[in-house]
Design brief:
This protein has about 210 residues and is mainly alpha-helical. It has two domains: about 10-80, no CATH class; about 120-205. It is built from seven helices and no strands. Helix 2 packs parallel to helix 4 (about 65-80), helix 5 runs parallel beside helix 6 (about 105-155) and helix 6 packs antiparallel against helix 7 (about 160-205). It is elongated, with a radius of gyration of 29 Å.
Length: about 210
């Protein structure tokens, strides 16, 4: 899939570093509105984006060429509304804004949904890893507490009353350790299931040409 889109024109890089519709005075004056429209279309932006350009350029006494922008955007949408782009958008957790033409949208949406499902399955594995890590840190902290209390329990400076409290604390910490170990085992099993689901789905989409 990557090779399929490797030849996308360098025009996609126009304004690539701009995450919003803000423009400088020079950009407003010298801007190629067809190229700007093409860039926005190739990124799947809605035509509402030109409102931001209007506001930015109004400060410099410049009015964007709306018709040139729309022509460029329509050309950019042809690049965007391809199944491969739809899959990539979904697989990266991107949002589709309903910009594709009716004749292109069904195939694009099928690919986008396939990518979105891949994103969801990857997220399941990532979340499971995070949950396991968090529980393991809790377990380490609990065991550190136990060791500290065990040291205090055998200290000559510890009073009988303090030992009673320490023993009770150690019982509670021992129970918590067991709970955490059980929770970690369950999370590891969940992760294994998520990994199997992800592996199977990756094989499925690979057979579909993604």
């Amino acid at each position: 899939m990557n090779c399929r889109w490797a030849g996308i024109t360098v025009a996609l890089l126009v304004l690539a570093l701009s995450g919003c519709a803000s423009m400088s005075g020079d950009e407003c004056v010298t801007g190629d509105w067809a190229a700007i429209g093409f860039e926005d279309g190739s990124r799947g932006y809605t035509s509402d984006r030109i409102s931001g350009y209007r506001k930015a350029c109004a400060k410099h006494g410049v009015t964007p060429d709306f018709q040139a922008y729309l022509r460029g955007r329509d050309q950019g949408l042809v690049e965007f509304c391809q199944p491969g782009r739809g899959f990539s958008l979904g697989a990266n957790g991107g949002q589709y804004n309903g910009v594709c033409a009716a004749d292109r949208e069904p195939e694009f949406l099928d690919a986008y949904r396939a990518g979105s499902e891949l994103y969801r399955l990857r997220a399941n594995v990532s979340q499971a890893n995070s949950a396991i890590y968090a529980k393991q840190k809790q377990l380490e902290f609990t065991k550190d507490e136990m060791r500290a209390k065990e040291v205090a329990l055998i200290s000559d400076e510890t009073t009988t009353e303090e030992r009673v409290v320490l023993i009770a604390d150690l019982v509670d910490l021992s129970e918590r350790t067991g709970e955490l170990e059980s929770e970690i085992e369950m999370l590891i099993a969940d992760r294994a299931r998520h990994e199997q689901e992800l592996e199977y789905y990756q094989q499925t989409v690979a057979m579909q040409g993604y």
